[in-house]
Design a protein that fits this description.
4 domains, TIM Barrel, alpha+beta, 43 strands, 8-stranded parallel sheet, 10-stranded antiparallel sheet, 763 residues, Beta-galactosidase, Chain A, domain 5, 13 helices
Length: 763
Amino acid sequence: MIEAWEMSQGGIRVKKKIAALVSAMLLLLSTGVIAFAEAPTEETEQSKPVIMGVEEDTEDIYLTTYEEVASNSDSILYADMQKGHFALQDKSNGHIWYSTPNDSLTDNITIGSDKWGLRSQLIVRYLFEEDVLKAVAPSETNSQLSCIEEGSVTVKKIPNGIRVDYYFGDLGVTIPAEYCLQGDSLSAKILLDEIDEGDGCLITDINLLPSFGAGNAQAEGQLLVPDGCGALINFNNGRDRLAYESMIYGEDLIETPELKTTKTEAVRLPVFATLMDNAALMGIVKQGDGSASIRAVNGNENRGYNAVSTVCHLRSLEHLTMFEKKGNSVVGRLTAWPEGAEEYEVVYTPLKGEEATYVGVAEKYRNYLIEEKGLIAKVQQPSLSVDIYGGVDVKATFLGFEYSKIEKLTTFSQAQTFLEKLYAAVNMPLSVRYLGWSGDGILNKKTPAKATAMKKLGGQKAFTSLAEFLKGTDSVLYTDVDLMQFRKGSEKRAIKNVFNETVEQTERLRSVFTIRLGLDAVKFITPQDLYGKAETYLESVKRQGLTHVSLSTIGNLVYSNNSAKNGFHRYFFTGEMEKILKLYHEAGLSLSVENGNAYAAVYVDRIYDAPTVTSGYDIFDEEIPFYQIVFHGYVTMTTTPMAQAMEASSNILKTVESGSELLYGGMYAQSSVVTGTRYDYLYSTEFSLWENEAVATATRYRDLLNTVYDETITGHRAVAVNVMETTFSDGTRVLVNYTEEAVTIDGVTVNAGDYAVMEGVTE
């Protein structure tokens, strides 16, 4: 008699007669729910989900029995009512996206924990309470090993989908999730307020649906991650065995490492995608984006799958080094749970045909922002953007006594003289952002309460003259304010780490990365105090009659406050920023921010220094202007200031490729005034060094910018190695050649390091 092995709920293997198993499998085969290892036909693929690689001795824990649980005009949701696995079918083309790969039984590449994570819908990081003090990092488990193999999953139908309760018996933890159809999308939620951590277990992170839509070792496709401007990871590129993971809206400032020698780009958009031939799966973090990260794994010699997902961060483990003189002793402590957080939600949308590209994903995400967040087209008239650096405070001495003084980099009258000359030369409006025009200059001592023109720079009369000149030329003046950072003032208003220490950022010498002595560290105001500060400052803005305000850091920085008495979880941070942005927007102000996280873009007219590069990780294969494709034609954007760009010539080409505005930043004073100070990044920005280049570049670019500034980007592709083509909604095509040799595309020759325009030509 043939015999088989079966896993019981208690984890003990017992022999069973094969007859019952064979009967059950025959029934499943007859319904098309389970198939053997041969590839599915097109007809099968468009009917019901299939499981590949099933053999006679396959254990029940690795079988998935699908049944239809919900449907609408767009999609069908199938689910295994025992294990909670599901499959989402797009009715328009029959394509099926599996929550865990349907061919994992045939995978002979993936090893170690990745193999179990591949078959899981949740990967959980945790610590037991008694281990926190000495823990180096959280431990990890997954729903396949801890739940399914132990038979501790409960599944029930709910309207439009299923609810799955994952009981991790080894932890004593229950995590409930819901998977439901939502129009043409699927909503995946972790019900945070219903999580039961049992007795003594503390969850730190939950990786939701780590392999939803994964592509295997034979598949061709790409993973889209919004790192910086946007990056593509080719399936099975074999690079970097470690996963890519980056926090949405940037790393928490409370966890900034002491020594960071490389510059990385932040994730500004809570969107990601898996791209395949004629099909794509886009994900948007709808709730909890402030405390989420994007995670991507690529196929290599030890991993047979490619997938992108998100991680919900609920607690973080911080460390404190004690007794340094007697030998280091490191102690750990966990941050608090986000009390009041109800759900973590990611919405997945299948795309097909021409939509199944990164341009299609960008358009779909833009439509989401329009429908769900109220984004409207607010693109401003095309301009040459200019940052003016006003005043900075520096250390000085008198008779041996040290004091702080304001160094004038550009007075209001100097700025006006230069801008009058620049405007006449380029014959186009200017978009001016004045940094350090008020208060303590570019970097606050105290968080500002008044919008008052600095007397050292000429006072109110000179400022008014500058503003009136710009208004008369249809130019705009954004007065910059930083409501978040300060160096002096009450420690009670500064964010703390979990050990109740004030979080401080120090300046470092770039050559040897040691701390610069004698400089005040930068602190960050608690999120709870930000709105009140913003209200007070807004009243001053109204009294001054200002119409354009740059809330630079509000759209850029994200952090938490881990004080035991006054804690604030990062989960809620974006909501606080939206309240401030809405307050200023409803006051009738034209707003700008720097870098521009997604939640800010809805409220602003301009994004200065929009991300134009990626972090450049080895796992990346292509750098794309995904960020610009999302917002072009709706929000005006500039590229990186020329003086701060790694390569000015490449930065100009990126400006043209994305149809953005040029940005130059400068000062009237000589560079020597900032040499050796914390402002030495402004070295070589005096007007005279870049004025002629700016005039020549802007004059040449002016006609193209005037043509495409309010158009959306409808196409983007590589037409040759390092030669990019952008198509705008009016049909204009722009070719950008990043190589060192001339190329000819469709009869048009593009010189090395240059660009060419084919106006009104469609593919």
